[in-house]
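Researcher: If convenient, please comment on what follows.
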Amino acid sequence: MRHTPTGGAGWSGTTSSDGKPMSIGAVLGLLREEFPEVTISKIRFLEAEGLVEPTRTPSGYRKFTAADFQRLASVLRMQRDHYLPLKVIREHLDAQERGEEVPLPAPAPSRDLVEGVPELGEERPATARIGRAELLAAAEVDEAELAEWEAYGLLTADAEGSYGGEAVGIARLVADLGGFGLEPRHLRAVKAAAEREAGLVEQVVAPLRRHRNPQTRAHAEATARELATLSVRLHAALVESALQAHLR
């Protein structure tokens, strides 16, 4: 099935002068104008998952049309802005091709790494769980890297082999730290500190969680969020203070 454009990044003026389909390298260059972290392996993965179907030359080279490009841009945008799993994205695009209007959830808020937690008292948005293949694609890592991270407890799948929405952010941070030479074994201390902080929060709110009054239990959740926010901010401030001390 050939796909029709679904909106998003424009193709006009970006094809070759004769309007012929483009190679995967050319499409990668265009996509990186909006998605600088996209790779050829990510495009190939989306093809393998049936999200895009480029034609092939007799020698086996992929050729992408304007519709293919638009569909890829839509997929990447829905992953980035709405944190949707590929199954939901595929259903949404297929519905669009049938002429159906399917609303998307509100875009996820963007935060910097130091303020990467909700504000005091703010509700956390619900995030869908994702499969292993989707996590690998979103973090742009291979199976061996993910297995190593799991071995050190940095990421954990549930009994069904799926991960929470926060796993993508964790994976990307671990990968970014790896670029500076920090290996998973070096991050065990960070993991242990996070677990100790979570334990402290749980000690405070545990009596509230056990209360029979639903309002009290709801207050426990709000308190836990507030304590987590303060804990993360304190941690960031202490790291900054320690770094400044070393620079003096």
